[in-house]
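Practice problem: predict the structure.
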Amino acid sequence: MNEGKAREKMTRGAKAEALLRNEILQEAFEYLEKEFVSAWKNSGVADADNRERLYMLCQNLAALQGYIQSVIEDGKLAKAALDELQSRLKYEKRK
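Answer:
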């Protein structure tokens, strides 16, 4: 990974981390999950289609959270790679 790409991933990771720390977004995720689960629990026995839809909504919500988390992890890995590259360059300069 080149330095420019690593810095880009670090920036995206920092933005994603700020996004997940945002209390409004956290509240939205919690609210939606609670609403989906409540609707599922209160669905009628014969309403399999609605339960299936609610299940998919829960899965999509988790996928969105997972994607944001993966951007954060990519940023952390990019930072580690960049730190290692900079350490290697310093070491090679000392030789």
